[in-house]
Amino acid sequence: MGIKVGIIGCGSIAKFRHAPEYQANPHVTELVFYDRNAARAKELALEFGGCYVETVDELINDPTITAISDCSSNEVHHIHTSNALLSGKHVLCEKPLAINVAFAEKMLEAERKSGKKLMIDHNQRFTKAHQKAKELLDQKELGEVLTFKTTFGHQGPEGWGVDKSNATWFFKKDRSYSGVAGDLGIHKIDLIHYLLDDEIDVVHAFHGALDKVDETGEKIEVCDNVVCALKTKRGRLGTASFSWTYYGAEDNSTTIYCEGGIIKIYQHPEAQLIIEKKDGTVIKYELEPIQTNENQTNTGVIDAFIDCIINDREPPVTGKQALACLKVIDQILGL
Amino acid sequence: MGIKVGIIGCGSIAKFRHAPEYQANPHVTELVFYDRNAARAKELALEFGGCYVETVDELINDPTITAISDCSSNEVHHIHTSNALLSGKHVLCEKPLAINVAFAEKMLEAERKSGKKLMIDHNQRFTKAHQKAKELLDQKELGEVLTFKTTFGHQGPEGWGVDKSNATWFFKKDRSYSGVAGDLGIHKIDLIHYLLDDEIDVVHAFHGALDKVDETGEKIEVCDNVVCALKTKRGRLGTASFSWTYYGAEDNSTTIYCEGGIIKIYQHPEAQLIIEKKDGTVIKYELEPIQTNENQTNTGVIDAFIDCIINDREPPVTGKQALACLKVIDQILGL
Amino acid sequence: MGIKVGIIGCGSIAKFRHAPEYQANPHVTELVFYDRNAARAKELALEFGGCYVETVDELINDPTITAISDCSSNEVHHIHTSNALLSGKHVLCEKPLAINVAFAEKMLEAERKSGKKLMIDHNQRFTKAHQKAKELLDQKELGEVLTFKTTFGHQGPEGWGVDKSNATWFFKKDRSYSGVAGDLGIHKIDLIHYLLDDEIDVVHAFHGALDKVDETGEKIEVCDNVVCALKTKRGRLGTASFSWTYYGAEDNSTTIYCEGGIIKIYQHPEAQLIIEKKDGTVIKYELEPIQTNENQTNTGVIDAFIDCIINDREPPVTGKQALACLKVIDQILGL
Amino acid sequence: MGIKVGIIGCGSIAKFRHAPEYQANPHVTELVFYDRNAARAKELALEFGGCYVETVDELINDPTITAISDCSSNEVHHIHTSNALLSGKHVLCEKPLAINVAFAEKMLEAERKSGKKLMIDHNQRFTKAHQKAKELLDQKELGEVLTFKTTFGHQGPEGWGVDKSNATWFFKKDRSYSGVAGDLGIHKIDLIHYLLDDEIDVVHAFHGALDKVDETGEKIEVCDNVVCALKTKRGRLGTASFSWTYYGAEDNSTTIYCEGGIIKIYQHPEAQLIIEKKDGTVIKYELEPIQTNENQTNTGVIDAFIDCIINDREPPVTGKQALACLKVIDQILGL
Amino acid sequence: MGIKVGIIGCGSIAKFRHAPEYQANPHVTELVFYDRNAARAKELALEFGGCYVETVDELINDPTITAISDCSSNEVHHIHTSNALLSGKHVLCEKPLAINVAFAEKMLEAERKSGKKLMIDHNQRFTKAHQKAKELLDQKELGEVLTFKTTFGHQGPEGWGVDKSNATWFFKKDRSYSGVAGDLGIHKIDLIHYLLDDEIDVVHAFHGALDKVDETGEKIEVCDNVVCALKTKRGRLGTASFSWTYYGAEDNSTTIYCEGGIIKIYQHPEAQLIIEKKDGTVIKYELEPIQTNENQTNTGVIDAFIDCIINDREPPVTGKQALACLKVIDQILGL
Amino acid sequence: MGIKVGIIGCGSIAKFRHAPEYQANPHVTELVFYDRNAARAKELALEFGGCYVETVDELINDPTITAISDCSSNEVHHIHTSNALLSGKHVLCEKPLAINVAFAEKMLEAERKSGKKLMIDHNQRFTKAHQKAKELLDQKELGEVLTFKTTFGHQGPEGWGVDKSNATWFFKKDRSYSGVAGDLGIHKIDLIHYLLDDEIDVVHAFHGALDKVDETGEKIEVCDNVVCALKTKRGRLGTASFSWTYYGAEDNSTTIYCEGGIIKIYQHPEAQLIIEKKDGTVIKYELEPIQTNENQTNTGVIDAFIDCIINDREPPVTGKQALACLKVIDQILGL
Prior knowledge:
homohexamer; alpha/beta; Rossmann fold; NAD(P)-bd_dom_sf (chains A, B, C, D, E, F); Dehydrogenase (chains A, B, C, D, E, F); Gfo/Idh/MocA_Oxidoreductases (chains A, B, C, D, E, F); GFO_IDH_MocA-like_dom (chains A, B, C, D, E, F)
């Protein structure tokens, strides 16, 4: 018996990632789209061969829908996702989980009450290079982790949204909430938690709107750059940089320094993972090219979400993990 | 008329950098060596064809000596350098300038009183790639600088000193004072000041002794790793990492993110400087390979020091600049 | 208010360069096509969404047409372009300007009388690599130019025209006039004038039909190869080779030898511009791949032509400059 | 029975090429050195284990000497070589054969009279890449030759002579006679004759002293650059450039354009010979790196000279061939 | 007058190789398709614009058909091909010629009787690299052949057939007859015969079904791996490996060791043919990439077949040659 | 207390491998050399700072000698090694263990009786790439091994021995016994046994003297080429080629085909080990370059031998294992 999925919010992330990946998943048999702007829902229904509804309640109350992707704006995640959970749906919520910790905690409360699965779309974990790095780190091939560096930056989100301009919601305080920190930073915070099997404990950071201007020519209200020094609960030290002003090639690199060598991720176009060992040995893994805004391949997130429903497993990215990331973002922003 | 130079302290830095570069400089006609361990002074006198003296006072009071390199241990720089200046010598002092700010300020006082030149050996400024980057930044080829990243790390100083073991003075609190921060960090702090024509204003950092042990097997007393988030007076944000525990290839890279593109220094083995521009243009400069502990070429420091004496110019690295770096190191270490 | 453009002659150059580039230009709102063979005009009108006319006079006398591309055969440029100018149109004339100097001088006369703009399609100036080289030469980054070498050659024009055979008009004396000299040579003569801000003064050359045969198997009447030694007014010396018989990869390279180093253009597949300096520094510019007959990208010529009309600027390639090139071709051919 | 060889003139060419290659040849058993400056002869005798004589006549009249290398200055070749031949010696004369055609003709007269062998050191013929190209051309693998390009240029001869300064004899009218034309050009003229089995018939050229100055700061009296358009007896067209002012990497490249493809020699650091065929096939020959002033390997010239003596064969580079080259140089210089 | 061709069997080989290559051949004017499963014949008729027939006899008896491709299953080649020959058709028969030697001999008998041409699709001979190797070997550029190595292996035929599963006929004893030996091995046996102008005389081999299972999960009945030591009539020694279990990149390499060097075929992605000579010279031929199951280009086989009909030449792969290969396969399998 | 070592036989293997590696081993304090030709023993004693003896008995009976390297000719291994063992020495015997199985069995008998250690110099096991491959195979990273290919070939042993000519003992029946099979083949047979943790069970092979001639111009008496098909006890199939007539680069490659991918050893100059996996992942290990006759680095064999003495462990290559290899060689040669 196939799974019927509802998608709330029909922006770019729904169009380019959720909808096509549900379509490609063999267990998903039907798609229902909702967007405040019904035209957008209709368009996706057409493109991906499903139907659409006019109100979010139709979706949430439809008893034949088993699972929901919450691709709504960040500021309403806590409403839609909580309602969906409490209506008995499994929910895959886009990142960031919520625009503040209090909202996020209510979502986790809804998860607990409902007994349904809540998964968050921290998709960095699912790339081949990050999965291989995780495997090597878990096996302690290079001993314990000592320090790390991680970066996520590109030329900015103006080109990503539907309207490709600097009027983008990413630049609005009330909708994006945390600027580049929530857009890019949260991905790599989650990745560090995942790879190191550890949690950021203390953050020292600076953030600011250094270059981006909105449609009126004013400096944007949210930060376009974050730099941090980080310390984990297990005592590892690291730096992180998140930026919308890297005006060259996109950079999604991470380096993990261990007792026995170094793991370099996404630093070479052909070898996505490189290991340098103390004795001079270099091991190059040619896996798959990194996903960039220009290179969209299957993230694996949808398959993982459907899989945890079918096999009744814990989601690979839990609400609790996402909350931990959100708290780090709060520390970064000094909230 | 040639210049007679005295060298105080005959360890590795004197042997591998100062002595050979003085020897290669056409204006230097005589070398006099001093070390607390007279045997080492004698050895260098033999190797580089000069003489040696038994006491530091002989050197400082020799009226025929015009210039002095202070290659003594960090903890006595303020004594030897100050005395030399006050005795009318120009002094090139090894980095870090001193083991605390108070001592350093006294050295600057001595410089002022004596009217002699004090230069500090922050040699990173002199590499071809850094000089080219400086030129591009000064000309604003890529507009203003927004953010930056800098790193200096290798497998540790155990292999550098004369005795190649973890009994090295680099690991001793009372002699190295600031561990990797003073050994490697101060180079890149100075470099950032130089390249950006700016000064680090606020530092958020973590530091610790994460891996290195001394000859007794105890964790070392000074830090082997530093990670920082930095903010400059002109509002640029950046990260820096300094490490003795990068157990792979040495990393002395710096990245400068500007309004019009990115400058990548020492990130590619053949192209020491790479520019990525907003329009996709990539420019690769094949200059000279970076100096590493294994690849020692002429630093240009000695030539610059002699040049500022002969032409009565301000030294390219002043005591004031070195003091500014020292204050940043103090911030890093939370002093 | 948009610009209405007329195109005279609907051969390959109109189809592959002029029409699509006008279509892509935001200021051009209408296209009108004319060809002696009305079917070809009709076909392009269909493809690029404009209309066509049956006689050239309709085009030239249409008061709503502001600008005209003269893509007619070389032997009638002087008629159509002069008429168009005198009818008050700005004209972009294909190269070579005319089949002899006398005709060309009449065209310049028409330009002067009409007060309209005459631009010639010497498109080599507009490639990214040539523009960057020009910038470096103007800034005297490598000092003064001493000597140069330039080449333009490929397997021949048989494959370029509409009928892809050796019955091509390029091989006919009465239509192509100057063979490879006018087809390829004039491009690089103009480029040398442009890059060096100088003019070829004396030419020593050989030319001949060494290999190409026409549809009857006879050696062609125009030259398929030119080799020259060149001297500029400012005393620079160089060589040039133009060929339709380079039976390997196309070669459109130029090398400029300066007092401080060498500029190599289009000699490496990835780095379109390479600078070698006296001190051993090598700088590689990865710009865009060169245009070849197989790789047609926007030349920038149409945009430049429209831009000089809108902003009432001097065309970037003037009739006077084109005449200078034509005189060099005459010298090459010994006319 | 071994061959005893005399060397006239003990400058760089004798020291770095003739003497070591005679020493390495198994048939040569004794070396005798002569130089106007006896000290230099003595030095080489010491280094290569031979004896030296005080006057050139001792050498020329020594009945035990079979063969002579004439490494004297260009302006006395015709004297020494003619005398040696007429005294019954086989002579290997350095290039250029003589400083004018009349002298050269007398040398050929001496050769004819003496019945001895006269070989000229046009060593370009002997490199592996040139030999392979010759073989391919002789076999007509790519059909007939149509056109060609050849170049020989570097940063100038100042660093080559014994005294490494711009007081070098290469810059003196009375000793070098033809500047870069005789130094570098004659090599490539000979090479073109050899590869194409043809002879330059008409030359159109410019030459000049564009950049080099002598020890007084005056422009040099001989040309430092030559550019030519060339036509062979069999109707092939080509260009040639010879330069002492290529202030980047040395360039000794030649390209031969044939009916069926292109032969590229010394244009790629690893593949010294590359063939591009009409059908797109590319064949890369990795032979040996080209000889430059910095990379001196066995030229093969000495072995070939000794071999033609032992086996009584015609020398691979005859006086007649060298005379033909000299006449081309005369045409280049407009003499 | 064009040739009308019949195709017997409409599986993958007909669809991807025979039909499109006949379609591209200028001499072939009509195609007629037959398959036991008429739907498949119909489909190809539609795709390639021919007609189809319901019985094989219609095809064989059609007097307007000149040539036939026998793409039927291996076990019926001897029936269809023999009948076609005896009906006066020229036949191109897929490999392997037949499932046993006796059948094959009857086919040759039919060929002799009919006087028609029988060609076998041993297409390895026709690749550019193999043709170039043959030319070099025939010319004895490297002297005589001493030894050789050849391999043909990939991940298995499951993905090649129409039904892309391990129910493939390749795995069935009664249809594929000889497993990987007949599928891949016969290609390389024929290639060795062709390249060396020699014949395998004695074979020592092992074969087995080491890994592949059929649709029931049982080990397959035919071999998935063959390894052999080989000796030719002229005394050359070699090894061969044929495999359906190379679970990485496809390998179709051959190495020929000669008295003067080594010929390496299909061992480098860009240089399909590499020659290493005794003296260290390496010659790299960049021809065309090898055909793999994923990279299907024109094999040249159809053109060669049509050419031998039109010009009444002996087919480039004769029945006799194919029989010789079949006998080697028998030896390999110990039959 | 240091170990005193005796070396029997002072040919190339003693001079280039045993002596320098003993000298570099920190536990070895004295070296004693013996050779039938006392001059050679004396020479090595001089070079490596030991003493030499005139008779082999002096060595074998010296009670202060703990360990012996038997570098004598193959035909006397069984005598010297057995005697040494029975005199209470640990013995490292060069490969091949003996010239026939019967002799080898006596040596194992001597080992058993003496209770001393016998190790054989099968040094291929010790290279980094082979050790890494072993580790990956033991961990079944790619599942079970299915098939394999191995090769060992070069231009021949003429250049290896002391007298560098084709009078070498390698070419003599009575001294080398098994030609290339014993020289190169035994290394790779042992390697296959080691890597696969398996043993060759059946061998089908051809061998012959195809090209090499001895000093009289006669074909040599031993084989210069071997080709084999191999089957192991656990059912894996493979091919092997051993050759002295690979007249290009040396080839010491091995490929292991597994259920989940392929391991390629020594097939790429920079990545000595490459893994290709079923899913397309490629992993490249940059370890150390392979040892060739031109590139001699520490084999690790001597260190392993000394280590097993000091720690009383089983030698990493036992007499039993060497005997198994010898039996395979016998099968290859049909003995």
